[in-house]
Design brief:
It contains three helices and six strands. The protein starts with 39 loop residues before the first strand and ends in a 15-residue tail after the last helix. The protein has one domain: HIT family, subunit A (2-Layer Sandwich), CATH 3.30.428. Helix 1 packs antiparallel against helix 3. The N terminus is likely disordered. The radius of gyration is 15 Å and the shape is globular. The chain is of the alpha+beta class and 173 residues long. Bound molecules: zinc ion (2 copies). The site of one zinc ion (ZN) has 5 residues, from loops. This is HIT domain-containing protein. One of its GO terms (molecular function) is hydrolase activity. Keywords: Hydrolase, Nucleotide-binding. InterPro entries: Histidine_triad_HIT (IPR001310), HIT-like (IPR011146), HIT-like_sf (IPR036265). Pfam families: DcpS_C.
Length: 173
């Protein structure tokens, strides 16, 4: 699947064209910092992890790339797999439980267009029970739904697919 990298630069590529030096005017997630009042739990050069202001579960964190290189999962390609795996690994190291749910909303269901991964520690609130529906498909992919786990993202991209609402199991779909 390496050929896909020709069409898009990976999230982590410092040469990837950035909007406003990696920050997009008007994007709330481009302003995430302790100084701006966000409950930041972890940060490094590429990732920031902070608490969602409207938790849909006992604990609800968001993992975002520091730089606004990708708006939604629609734009991801196979070149982004290592970055997605690092986002998931960071989430799992912060909240290691087996019942912790990780995933991304799929447009038009994503409210903020700055790539962000939800980390949900049950029990869920009433809204939380309906907003993050995981539906497993063939080959580790998904069926029709507006939420996708990092492992589904990786398997769909590995199979040459793109992330959308529809079921995608790579080229066959
Ligand atoms: Zn942003
Ligand atoms: Zn979301």
């Amino acid at each position: 699947m390496k050929f896909l990298s020709c069409f898009r630069r990976p999230l982590e590529d410092p040469e990837r064209p950035l909007l406003n030096d990696g920050y997009q005017a008007g994007c709330v997630f481009c302003t995430v910092s302790k100084d701006n009042g966000f409950a930041v739990e972890y940060e490094d050069e590429e990732l920031i992890v902070f608490r969602d202001r409207w938790p849909r579960a006992l604990e609800h964190l968001l993992v975002i790339p520091r730089r606004h290189t990708v708006s939604t999962v629609h734009e991801l390609t196979a070149a982004d797999i290592p970055f997605i795996e690092r986002m998931a690994a960071r989430a799992r190291s912060l909240r290691p439980g087996n019942d912790v749910k990780l995933g991304f909303h799929i447009p038009p269901m994503s409210s903020v267009h700055h790539l962000h991964m939800h980390v949900l520690v049950p029990p869920f609130t009433l809204l939380g029970k309906v907003q993050y529906p995981v539906r497993m498909g063939e080959d580790g992919g998904k069926k029709w739904t507006w939420f996708v786990t990092p492992s589904q993202v990786v398997s769909i991209l590995e199979n040459g697919g793109t992330i959308g609402l529809k079921a995608r199991a790579g080229k066959k779909a």
